[in-house]
Amino acid sequence: MADSLPSLLWAALVFTVPLTLASFALGLTVGLVAAVVRLFGPAPLAAVVRFYVWIIRGTPLLVQLFLIFYGLPSVGIVLDAFPAALIGFTLNVGAYTSEIIRAVIGSVPKGQWEAAYSIGMSWSQAMRRTILPQAARVAVPPLSNTFISLVKDTSLAAAITVPELFQAAQRIVATSYEPLILYVEAALIYLALSSILSALQVRLERRFGQYGGFLEAKS
User: Fold this and answer.
1) Distance (Å, rounded) from C-alpha 136 to C-alpha 144?
2) Residues 11, 163: contact at Cβ < 8 Å?
């Protein structure tokens, strides 16, 4: 375990962490746009977004990665492993976060819109200054859970040859013939990353909740 730890940590630092951060940032952007389109966009465009969400949520992430990396070359689109994984995770995160964002925006009372309009705000100003700040506080727990799940889901990128943490463990197993030790070590690294993110989630929830909501009701 000591001999393999540097290699596993390097793979996590160079591939797993960047893939997670980039996929979540891009997926969150896609999710926000998709949610806004479904709530406020024209019917044909909203239908396209609903179809996208339906497809992504109804099929396994591993299948989506295989379609992008192994399937697209059949139609002349060839992608390297990391960009293919980034696209796959982004689309997947975007679909799930769009549902979260759509729900939290819809949970903001209609009176908040009316109050924003009554003081002369445009739709975009009301959304940016009034609706999204309130929705963000509610969205922190589910979005944080999605982010933590994404850290673990990046292990699926090993199936399309991305040399991230899990594939690094697989490669060492192929030469050391110690699968139990290496896979336990990889699992512990994932556990450490998830634990750090869970602690940050708790602090973030406390920060957003100190002005109202659950913590106020609890007190």
Assistant:
1) 11
2) yes
